[in-house]
Amino acid sequence: MLPTAGACSAFRSTTIEIDRSFVREVTRNESSASIIRAVVSIAADRNMLTTAEGVETLQQRETVQTLGCTRMQGFLFGAARPAQEIRKLLVAKAGVEDAA
Fold it and tell me: Fewer Cβ atoms within 10 A, N terminus or C terminus of the chain?
């Protein structure tokens, strides 16, 4: 069920996430592409960003980018990692001691 327009205006967010189920089918199913296109349009009208979740192939990346998605995440870019591992990576990159 989608929220009403009034509920959307009360909800202050800057990003709309596009579920991986649509991204997975986007290159094989025109209805998935149509849904992504519609979500991107709604986001643009509200000055919001879009994040396509579950991008796993170059073809998916190119397609959701062509449809107007502003951000992407998924295994194409890197596997999910535990928070502690990411913290260590960021600390090492910044060249500072881990305070946690």
Answer: N
CA 72 – CA 81 distance, rounded (Å): 17
pLDDT the model gives residue 92:
87
φ, ψ at 62 (rounded to 5°):
-60, -40
Largest CA distance in the chain: 50
- For the question of whether the overall pTM of this predicted structure is more than 0.85, the answer is no
Instruction: Report d(CA 23, CA 57) in Å as an integer.
Output: 10
Distance separating alpha carbons of residues 93 and 45, to the nearest angstrom: 37
Residues in the chain: 100
Strands laid side by side in the 71-72 sheet? 15-18, 49-52, 71-72
